[in-house]
Design goal:
Rossmann fold; elongated
């Protein structure tokens, strides 16, 4: 039976460096010698693709190397379940995770790598206010626990002012490791959308070009969020923000619903039932004179009796139609003769009501793949996208000014619609006011989707003496909850869930969400007290921390084995002990504190019998609490019986 320790790779988050080396080994096995990369050989294999110049194009700043290393350092933390703070724990597939998003992204790697369809984030804009993500390269988890007051120490938040000399650097050092960790979570057909203002737009785009690849750039959408304009600029009142979009190589946008105007335009239906609109064949706008494209000036003949067009005069009564401009001068057709001949049956003559002149129209078919949708534009304009709309939606659920500049539900719902469908997973690791969660639930109610969300939010402390945080802190107090930003996030999700399920005009969402909280591992590390080594040795006999529950341990095992946090879990009592079956038998776990010799055989045979009933397709891992066994004999007997029944992968912690 293998015993897991805090230093075991299995008890840590995914090792991204080891994964990168494995990919290199698969592509260039000759470049690895005794597990190390020979860069001279690798450069030879890559040839001219290697850039060895000292000066090259790119975005560099102080701390970039350290920020990259921070993203690649595995986490030893865990996520502790909180059913009491959740909604519909047993049935939901949504997650809310309270903690530092960098550590959480690392912990999600094994379970969710390559599974996220849409990432939407609205990261902190670089405003010069307090910065709440001061990463510590040595121990980011300890830094988080200190920052949120969960361990002694604490860290004061520092202002990231423009006069500090590190204004952009600090922001980039915060964003870089998080985007790097998020990249591996995206599916090949996934997409990431990032809201940002003009202060960091160009830095963010350069950052995303490096992380996701310049070829993955889709668009920088301009979103008009405040038609009146904000007077925080000296010369121009800012009325817009940006949505930066990067996608995987297989991404296909879902498009947007057709507007009433578009539906009206595609009013014609051909003999095969395909919808189309009619457009003028004559070139309009820009260079539209005959001399600009002389070969595209030619007559088209129309037979009034048959209402058909041709390139040759077939009857003396045929009307000759030429591409005349509005002032009567010669223009030209949009299509050349060859294309006109190929689609001649699509052409239709129309007489202008104003001038009486004959013009030619051609069919524009609605793409069958976009039958009910249209391509989104690069400017999003409308009251539903405004900051005021976001504030109104939030105040319907939470009183007072609990959040600054919350995003519009319809704005993020549009992102959700464009980038996801069916039962896709949507991730937002700067959850803030939980607009993304509400947007996912709302869109599911509209189109019957079963999308899931994963939201991550730092439990940022709220100061009741700070005028801007006073309402938020007071509301937390009224709920009997600690004054943390994440408490507001959870409460909005609860109220939005209740409101949407009560709205009978839309499909019932029955969403709910599971709450997890970032913490240190349940496995006790070796932390000797030099003043009392005897007590330290006695404490180390129990491998699990005293205050941790069996559920805490079970979900850490799920994370470290790469199982999703909403995977189905069954429970049985075998030989008087509680046994869990996870994912249809992929994991069998008994985390009881005491397993004596007398119950070992019955417990092992019962687990083997249940495993045979479940008949999982893959290999099964069995997990036990190491200190539960009365002695080594009991431990060995249980492992031997399980192995006799095909369960050879047995571990303890």
């Amino acid at each position: 039976m293998r015993k897991l320790t805090l230093d075991d790779p299995m008890t840590r988050s995914a090792d991204l460096v080891a994964g990168n080396v494995a990919k290199l080994k698969e592509l260039f096995p000759e470049a690895l010698t005794e597990g190390k990369i020979d860069f001279d050989v690798l450069k030879q294999l890559l040839g001219t693709a290697v850039d060895e110049r000292e000066e090259r194009y790119g975005l560099n700043w102080h701390g970039k190397r350290r920020a990259r290393q921070l993203a690649l350092t595995p986490s030893t933390g865990t996520l502790r379940p909180c059913p009491g703070e959740s909604v519909d724990w047993d049935t939901t597939r949504n997650l809310f995770i309270e903690g530092d998003n960098l550590e959480v992204l690392k912990l999600l790697q094994k379970s969710y790598a390559g599974k996220i369809k849409l990432i939407y984030i609205d990261p902190p804009y670089n405003t010069g206010k307090d910065f709440v993500y001061p990463d510590d390269f040595q121990d980011n988890l300890k830094n988080y626990l200190e920052l949120t007051g969960q361990v002694e120490g604490g860290r004061k938040l520092t202002s990231n002012t423009e006069t500090s000399g590190r204004f952009h650097t600090d922001w980039l050092n915060m964003m870089y490791p998080r985007l790097l960790a998020a990249r591996s979570l995206l599916r090949e057909d996934g997409v990431i959308m990032i809201s940002i203002d003009d202060k960091e737009l160009h830095h963010l785009r350069a950052l995303c070009n490096e992380i996701f690849g310049e070829e993955s750039f889709v668009a920088a959408v301009t979103a008009v969020t405040n038609m009146k304009g904000r007077n925080d600029k000296k010369h121009v009142a800012s009325c817009h923000e940006y949505l930066l979009i990067y996608s995987g190589q297989d991404f296909v946008s879902n498009g947007l619903p057709l507007t009433e105007e578009q539906n009206a335009a595609f009013k014609y239906v051909d003999e095969d039932g395909n919808r189309y609109a009619l457009r003028d064949l004559r070139k309009r706008g820009g260079p539209d004179r005959r001399e600009d494209r002389p070969r595209m000036f030619f007559p088209i003949y129309w037979n009034k009796a048959t209402d058909t067009c041709s390139l040759e005069r077939e009857s003396s009564t045929d009307f000759e139609i030429l591409p005349r401009r509005g002032d009567g001068t010669d223009g030209y057709w949009r299509w050349g003769k060859e294309k006109v001949g190929k689609h001649i049956k699509w052409l239709k003559a129309r007489q202008s009501e104003r001038s009486g002149r004959l013009d030619i129209e051609h069919r524009v078919y609605l793409d069958p793949a976009m039958e009910r949708t249209s391509k989104p534009k690069s400017v999003w304009l409308g009251g539903e996208f405004s900051s005021d709309s976001g504030k109104r939606a939030l105040k319907e659920l939470l009183p007072g000014d609990t959040f600054d500049f919350p995003k519009s539900v319809d704005f993020i719902r549009t992102c959700v619609l464009l980038g996801s469908s069916d039962d896709d997973i949507v991730l937002d690791f700067f959850a803030g006011s939980a607009t993304t969660g509400q947007a996912v639930m709302t869109q599911n109610g509209i189109d019957g989707g079963r999308r899931r969300y994963i939201l991550v939010q730092l439990p940022e402390p709220l100061d009741p003496n700070n005028r801007e945080q006073r309402d938020a802190a007071a509301f937390c107090e009224s709920l009997g909850r600690p004054p943390h930003l994440s408490e507001l996030t959870k409460e909005r999700l609860r109220r939005a869930d209740k409101k949407l399920n009560a709205d009978t005009s839309r499909g019932t969402t029955h969403a709910g969400f599971r709450v997890f909280k970032l913490d240190s591992s349940n496995i006790r590390g070796w932390e000797p007290n030099r003043d009392n080594l005897e007590k330290s040795l006695l404490d180390s006999v129990e491998h699990i921390k005293e205050e941790r529950t069996p559920d805490d341990i079970l979900y850490e095992v799920l994370l470290k084995l790469g199982l999703e946090l909403c995977v189905p879990i069954e429970q049985r009592t075998i030989a008087g002990k509680t046994v869990h079956s996870v994912g249809g038998g992929v994991l069998m776990a008994c985390l009881e504190e005491k397993i004596n010799r007398g119950s070992v055989e019955r417990l092992a045979l019962g687990i083997a019998e249940w495993h045979e009933e479940l008949a999982p397709s893959g290999e099964t891992t069995c997990v036990f609490r190491d200190s539960a066994f009365a002695d080594d004999v009991a431990r060995s007997n249980l492992a031997a019986i399980l192995e006799q029944h095909g369960l050879s992968k047995v571990t303890s912690l």
